[in-house]
Specification:
Length: 114
């Protein structure tokens, strides 16, 4: 079951310029500010993340991540409905697991489970 929108991640080539833009856009400072990842809590409580060199990691644009109860099961369900796995489920730290699928129309869907 999908619970909520967890985060939207943006690939960026200049982390400092992107960070400045999102600080202005969201009106808050980042709560994670590392060379490998910058994250903000947007109004409404959603996380907005900036991924340096995300394009080199295969990101083609912003990727929404949806919180799910059963990551493996949701991936299997989406694949059965025609999606393809772009990034297998894996641990990203802190007990959080993520995966990425691409739907039949080419849209990227991120899935997250804590």
């Amino acid at each position: 079951m999908t619970n909520a929108l967890d985060a939207i991640l943006y690939p960026v080539t200049d982390i400092e310029a992107a960070k400045a833009q999102f600080e202005i856009l969201l009106g808050v400072a980042p709560f994670v500010d590392q060379p490998y990842y910058v994250a903000f809590t947007a109004p409404g409580g959603h996380q907005v993340g900036l991924v340096p060199n995300g394009h080199q990691r295969g990101m083609t644009g912003p990727t929404p991540y949806w919180t799910v109860d059963d990551l493996e099961g949701q991936v299997q369900t989406l694949v059965a409905a025609g999606a393809t796995v772009s990034e297998e489920p894996h641990d990203v730290g802190g007990g959080k697991h993520v995966a990425i699928v691409t739907d039949p129309q080419g849209n990227v869907i991120g899935l997250a489970q804590a």
